[in-house]
Amino acid sequence: MNILEINDLSKVFNLHILNNKKLEALKSINLTVAEGEIIGLTGKSGSGKSSLMKCIYRTYLASGGQINYKSINGMVDLVTASDHEVIELRKNEITYCSQFLSVIPRVSAVDVVCENLFKVNADKEAARYKAKGMLQQLGFPAELWDAFPVTFSGGEQQRINVARAIITSPRFLLIDEPTASLDPKTKDIVVDMLLDLKKHGTSILCISHDEYTIEKLVDRRINLHLGEILNLN
Amino acid sequence: MSNTEDNWLLKVNNLTKIYGDYTENSIKNTGPKFNSNICPETGSIVACADINFELYPGEVLGIVGESGSGKSTVVKLLYFDMEQSLGSAFLKPHLDGLSNILEESNQKKRWIRNYLMGMVYQNPRDGLNFKFSSGGNIAEKLIMGGNFHVGNIRNRATDLLEKTEVPVLRMDDKPASFSGGMQQRVQISKAIANNPPLLFLDEVTTGLDVSVQAKVLDLIRELQQDLGIAMIVVSHDLSVIRMLTDRTIVMKNGRIVERGLTDQILQDPQHKYSQLLVSSLL
Q1: Cβ(B124)–Cβ(B186) under 8 Å?
Q2: pTM for the whole thing?
Q3: What is the ipTM of this complex?
Q4: Residue B275 is nearest to which of A15, A61, A105, comparing CB atoms?
């Protein structure tokens, strides 16, 4: 069963403020993701990997085509779904983990990781307990749990970002470069955590430039070039 | 996936405010297309027109736009601070959302304002009575909301001041002697005194220095998270909008030119004006 079916998706940026310049980011993308499948999205910088993810998450509005997502409550076309439908799906099913951590300042590491659990009104103490467990697993010493992630190093921020994205065990995870600035040992921990999610049924679309991560993590690889899918193997 | 459709808290239809005499053409001949909100025939000012949106319980909606785009007008109309020219608004907790609140009697409007809404203005002088103590200001709202027991009122005021981190010892001081940030927090205490399901915030951080801004924003976020109050946040500051809101409406010349998820508005704005706004401020 497929959780996601993308048909003929295109994205053109219409830049009114640059003399109506048009930038074609994605051309006629067709892609399916099966339930519990991990797909690796590869390709050079600027090939459209992040654009594709953002179209699925609806941070970008697609210019054409369909993104049919099989939600718990039935099929939804993420291109045309209402904003409120998308908000509900983001809250309950689809999580996006961006390349760089963007957090609300002055919130502790534990509470940043809990953010998505708080949104669904989970019990606060139980959520924090779970978050601390994940931080420990990811190698954070306890004295950092209450610190503000804005002050953390690149690799630490990345781990916070991953923990925040997977704490709810989403049905569908979009994850951008989860291991880019991690040491080999932490890379393995993150990859294992993602594989563990898969075991529990999560489907994952993962962007990575890291051959090692792709090798260990993904079931199938999709290569993008200038906004088009090059090969399907 | 249509189970979310009828779940609104506030529904606004065709809300319009025009100063001066107007004809049918006043709305037709103004707006972003003409880059003007002055009617060429009558000279009337179209402050806002054709405003339609729905707000869901617990949701935070941002309204952005340049000065004079009509964003404050929208919330002032909804809070009955001024009278609309056209349009209607429905609030679910009032008669199950079947009655247009903008056409209610003044007495009913007062009730709605005190029980179902709160407002925080940019200038604390608009929301607070500077002749009363800070506790007295909160008491005023509580009394309007039907609380008459002095002990209970004082207890609730104490709770609210603690929640908003205003020193309780200063409950009997007048807000005139407070700093800007503290005044703003007293105003927020007053606005949420009766646990309203809906809160309007009109440029609440404008003019405060950054550390005080941060405290006010943190407080608003906490209130949203802990009490689940739905909010309409009017601001020209896109970082405030990014931090607080789920969805955003972009206004220009009294009209909505774009609406969408806040991250979409900020990262993939469609309208020419939204693109200009985002590129100027990020």
Answers
A1: yes
A2: 0.92
A3: 0.93
A4: A15
